[in-house]
Design brief:
Number of strands: 10
Structural class: alpha/beta
Number of helices: 12
CATH class: Alpha Beta
CATH topology: Spore Coat Polysaccharide Biosynthesis Protein SpsA, Chain A
Radius of gyration: 21 Å
Helix content: 40-55%
Largest sheet: 8 strands, mixed
């Protein structure tokens, strides 16, 4: 709470004159985090807000009151703006509920920002999105603009540019264009095709990206994982698209281990702190589509941690086997 209050004050000290980028807010049953998100937007006063709220789950009686409370919070928006809402009567979940809402948004807008209820932006996020949306609006190699930098173990201060490019998406506060989102495709038919002809791995030179999303998309389509953003990352790989990753982080996720969070994180997980600039930002754009090897290596190790030596892996198995025989 202290950190959120700190960001609240910092935002107040860095007020932009207006925020003319359409925003989609995605919410469900967490009125407390949704209220914090709206409070953070009060400092930039977006002129056009789309709000999609998923419906209550039938087997969770508390959802009905919580979802109703989220609906009521919308009435606290106290600045002049256009508001459009999509209130679901039944629960669509955090896969189809989110992708359907994004498609609804982009049927009406050509570009925009997407914020889930627990992704609290600092004020620099909006200037960053405006800059990137304008810089790359005609460059269709760029599919997604991430506001969150998940790597908090590297100091990027001396990095020459303010962002780099990455082959998949990071979606804790992000922006894109309608003509990029149109490629989103979570059909089993497409997945079976790219697996049968090996095109996903060929597209990524059999890299860890291809293997990672071959595994994850399979889990999503089998409904063993409930998620939407893995498919968006997989879409980028199939279309040879890129996402922009900022040198500094602009998003504070306050819902990682909320009691009503859809996905929980390990206790060791640390949300990257948001960065506050001392003065007006003059963005340093790279002159080529550069990737960051150090950044990618950290994320690779999180998904594919190094295996211990064979001897250390086999000995515990032998001990366990012997113990079972003795018993």
């Amino acid at each position: 709470m202290f950190y959120s209050a700190f960001i609240f004050i910092i935002n107040a000290l860095h007020l932009p004159t207006f925020m003319d980028i359409p925003i989609l807010l995605l919410a469900f049953n967490r009125p407390d985090v949704f209220q914090e998100l709206l409070d953070s937007l009060r400092f930039v006063k977006p002129q056009k807000i789309y709000i999609a709220v998923d419906g209550p789950r039938q087997d969770k009686p508390d959802d009905f009151e919580k979802v109703k409370a989220v609906h009521n919070i919308i009435h606290t928006i106290d600045w002049p703006c256009e508001i459009k809402t999509l209130f679901r009567e039944v629960n669509m979940g955090c896969r189809h509920g989110i992708t359907d809402a994004i498609s609804w948004f982009f049927k009406q807008e050509t570009f925009g920002i997407i914020l889930e209820d627990d992704c609290i932006p600092n004020v620099h996020f909006f200037d960053y999105c405006r800059e990137m949306l304008e810089q790359y609006k005609e460059d269709k190699r760029v599919f997604s603009i991430a506001g969150y930098n998940p790597v908090n173990t590297i100091n990027f201060d001396n990095y020459a540019y303010d962002y780099w490019f990455y082959p998949t998406a990071i979606c804790w506060g992000w922006a894109t264009w309608a003509n990029r989102w149109q490629f989103y495709n979570d059909s089993e038919t497409l997945y079976k095709e790219v697996i049968s002809n090996n095109s996903l791995l060929q597209q990524t030179d059999n890299s860890w990206f291809g293997n990672k999303y071959k595994f994850l998309v399979d889990k999503v389509l089998k409904e063993e994982i409930t998620a939407w953003d893995y498919i968006w990352s997989y879409t980028l790989l199939l279309q040879n698209g890129l996402s922009i990753i900022p040198k500094y982080n602009f998003i504070n996720n306050i819902g990682c281990n909320h009691p009503d969070a859809s996905h929980k994180f390990d206790e060791q997980f640390v949300v990257t702190k948001t960065h506050v600039f001392d003065s007006e930002i003059k963005w340093k754009h790279p002159t080529y589509m550069i990737r960051n090897a150090a950044f990618e290596e950290v994320l690779k190790l999180e998904f594919f941690p190094p295996q211990p030596p064979f001897s250390k892996r086999i000995i515990p198995k032998i001990k366990s086997f012997v113990k079972k025989i003795i018993q």
